Amino acid sequence: MTLSAPPASKRTLWLALWIFPVFFGVFGVVFVLLLQVIPPPRPDVGFEYMTHYFETHRSTILIGLGLLCLVFGGHAVANGFVTYHMKRMSSGSTFAYVYMGGLAVGTLPGMLLVAVCWGTAALRPEREPRIIGLLYDLGMLSFNGSLGCFATAYLAFAIAILVDKSDIFPKWLAYLTIWQIVTEVIATQMWQQTSGPFAWNGSIAFWLAVIVFGVWLNCQFLMLKKATEEQPAGSRPHD
Fold this sequence. Notes:
Layout: H1 10-34, H2 47-56, H3 58-71, H4 74-87, H5 94-123, H6 129-145, H7 148-163, H8 171-186, H9 203-230
């Protein structure tokens, strides 16, 4: 006999929902104010600039790395909450698991690796400049260039919404998600360019993606809130 999971209480769902904006708020503080990955530093610089960069921002980078290590698990809660509501869709659980798996894999290079690389460089800035340069490039390319996993997750999310008959999320959110995929494809050019709009700090490869992501993330949160409010008491997602 197959046992079904008990229905989640509304208290649990609301707790998970509000972890979502708290985590991404802390994420913004870490990456903008502490790690100073956003706005991204220039890729077309020499080893002297890179070494000076880590010497100048050593304290904030190390604090940011420590804080990120403490709150990193919040990303699992946020993605798990989206997965929970995706499993409520009539489109089935497969897309939900693809979304969860894609973001779980993509988050490691896209969020944690850049912090570890920069923390390693900042910890001992007296290292050979070429090693500092390697950590500088590896961190930024992993942060901005881990594209495939995110694109796959966004595609699964969009398709799940479009084929869903339960109207858990509105169809326009799927079309907005497709723009997320477009920005991921455009950003592949940062592997070829070290200056201009398609570099890792460029107006198209980076800033366009940031704007689309910011709009999409806020819309996703609002629709998650609406889905949680409208979920019937005692209901459970599909297995």
